[in-house]
Amino acid sequence: MKICVMPGDGIGPEIMEQGVKVLNVIGEKFGHKFETTEALIGGAAIDATGVPLPDETVKACKESDAVLLGAVGGPKWDTIDPAIRPEKGLLGIRKELSLFANLRPAALFPQLKDACFLRPDIVEKGIDIMVVRELTGGIYFGEPRGTKVENGERMGYNTMVYYEHEVKRIAKVAFEAAQKRNKKLCSVDKANVLDVSRVWREIVIEVSKDYPDVELTHMYVDNAAMQLVRDPSQFDVIVTGNLFGDILSDEASVITGSIGMLPSASLGASNPGLYEPIHGSAPDIAGENKANPLATILSIAMMLRYSFNMAEEADCIESAVEKTLSEGLRTGDIMDVGGKLVGCTEMGEAVIKNL
Ligand code: NAD
Ligand code: IPM
Ligand code: MN
């Protein structure tokens, strides 16, 4: 199995180092040969080649069976030409690999229930949500877009577009995910205001006819943001567009303890899938051995499950993470509730010990 590893920027290299160690131990333990190659993306690629997504990186990803990504971006590149920002590298590779479905599971590990900011009686009801975020369309990619001067003043504009085929395929992914879970799907939109959302809703309803066993509901995004913290137990699978999914998944992460815990899988119609934590490059703690590597390690478990059909290996990683949390080890982001403060390396090594 060929895996293209892109550490990226900020805490990216630190968390990826732990992730790759975990992957190698899994390889030894279960007798698999994971062949990893590194590729440049984001700011690291800009510094080395002048662009955030070099052709060699795209080629390396396409020749791999799966792709792992740390994070991209940081203050160093915040003032460069927006056309070559680090984030363009990430958006570019998602588009190049047609990774339209971004699965972001937000589940609370029982060991972290005290790290959750919600009232204990709400936490008690359980938090286990799958956010299915559309990843290659919507306002992130819609045209026209740009900035200009009009009537003597500056203006910027983007366009939120969804084509029928884009909504259909993400809706199918979400219904299928719901079928394997608690058979509830909530489609989140802004159909009371946006035309694009009205089409989104219409199409989701049409697709629902093929999934009579799944209970479909609709919610406006502002209400969804509120309901996520009021009573997250009401959600099973959430399907939504690119921008709403970006925002709601960060919100969902914090009710599970920390953004440093949430993994993701970005999938297209065929391999390679791309696996990455949902968080960014955390420039405020980069290079200090403070980052939580668990979101990356759990992303590797998702890779094993979704790209390589290795359920047992994925379970092994997830159990090792649980065991490590049970032992009370905590990185700073989940530290506020007690436990033993450890760095990124120590957390990675503890997971390896528990594999
Ligand atoms: P961020 O997710 O990088 O950080 C937000 C906060 O969460 C920070 O306080 C950070 O220290 C903390 N945090 C994030 N991940 C953590 C981890 N693993 N362990 C401990 N703490 C963690 O978001 P931001 O500050 O808005 O963005 C920083 C940069 O990252 C920007 O350039 C942004 O564009 C980029 N970004 C990249 C990705 C990605 O590569 N997928 C995702 C989000 C943001
Ligand atoms: C994420 C990030 C990216 C996004 C950025 C860095 C392009 O926030 O992966 O959640 O908005 O999709
Ligand atoms: Mn995001």
UniProtKB/TrEMBL annotation:
Tree of life domain: Bacteria
Residue span(s) of domain Isopropylmalate dehydrogenase-like: 2-351
Co-factor note (free text): Binds 1 Mg(2+) or Mn(2+) ion per subunit.
Binding site for NAD(+): 74-87, 280-292
One annotated Gene Ontology cellular component of this protein: cytosol
One Pfam family named in its UniProt record: Iso_dh
Keywords: Amino-acid biosynthesis, Branched-chain amino acid biosynthesis, Cytoplasm, Leucine biosynthesis, Magnesium, Manganese, Metal-binding, NAD, Oxidoreductase
Organism: Maridesulfovibrio salexigens (strain ATCC 14822 / DSM 2638 / NCIMB 8403 / VKM B-1763)
GO molecular function, one term: NAD binding
Cell compartments where the protein resides: Cytoplasm
Catalytic activity entry: (2R,3S)-3-isopropylmalate + NAD(+) = 4-methyl-2-oxopentanoate + CO2 + NADH
Annotated site residue numbers, Important for catalysis: Y140, K190
Cofactor(s) needed by this chain: Mn(2+); Mg(2+)
Sequence positions that bind Mg(2+): D222, D246, D250
Keyword Manganese annotated: yes
UniProt gene name: leuB
Family: Belongs to the isocitrate and isopropylmalate dehydrogenases family. LeuB type 1 subfamily.
Protein function: Catalyzes the oxidation of 3-carboxy-2-hydroxy-4-methylpentanoate (3-isopropylmalate) to 3-carboxy-4-methyl-2-oxopentanoate. The product decarboxylates to 4-methyl-2 oxopentanoate.
EC number: 1.1.1.85
Main location group: cytoplasm
InterPro entries: IsoCit/isopropylmalate_DH_CS, IsoPropMal-DH-like_dom, Isopropylmalate_DH
Associated pathway: Amino-acid biosynthesis; L-leucine biosynthesis; L-leucine from 3-methyl-2-oxobutanoate: step 3/4
Subunit note: Homodimer.
Residues the record lists as binding substrate: R94, R104, R133, D222
Biological process, per Gene Ontology: L-leucine biosynthetic process
Protein name per its UniProtKB record: 3-isopropylmalate dehydrogenase
This protein's record includes keyword Metal-binding: yes
